[in-house]
Amino acid sequence: MARKLRFDLNQAISDIERLDRGGCLDRWRDAFGRPPPKHLSPQFMKRVLIWDLQNKELGGLSIGTERRLKEIASGKTPPAKAKPGSHLVREWNGRTYQVEVVDGGYLMDGRIWRSLSAIARHITGARWSGPRFFGVQ
Predict the structure, then answer these.
(1) CA 9 to mean position of chain CA atoms
(2) Coil, helix or strand for 111?
């Protein structure tokens, strides 16, 4: 049996979807206690308002997830590095290069490389930061 909600969540979402710009602004102030940032479209405000409503009714992020997101946003901790089994793809001069992260290195074209920088140098003929070339930390 589905959990009984305090009210009909689907109806509340439909109500938000029908709001005009003024209604979105009023609902935003009620939900967040301040006006929205300037230049937000009504469609975007509706998405945020629906997300907020669902979080309040169905439960939001775990405390650990919120803490981790705040750490990442503040720049205090680097994002996770590519792990073995990850695939990196980069297009260069019309060719697509695929690299697989493996224990102890990187696999490209049947050859194990010690670093992404060595692969980037092989591809471009110039010295590059391999992680920057492939868009990873």
Answers:
(1) 26
(2) strand
Do you know the residue count of the chain? 137
pTM of this structure: 0.48
Identify the residue whose tokens are 């509340």.
12
Question: In the chain, what are the domain boundaries?
Answer: 9-60, 87-134
For residue 132, what are its two tokens? Answer: 């920057």
Q: How far apart are CA 119 and CA 124, in angstroms?
A: 9
Note the pLDDT tens digit of each residue in 27-70: 999 999 999 988 889 999 999 999 999 988 888 888 888 888 88
Is 21 buried (19+), middle (13-18) or exposed (0-12) by CB count in 10 A? Answer: exposed
- Structure-block tokens of residue 91: 């297009």
Closest CA to 3 of 62, 75, 67, 57: 57
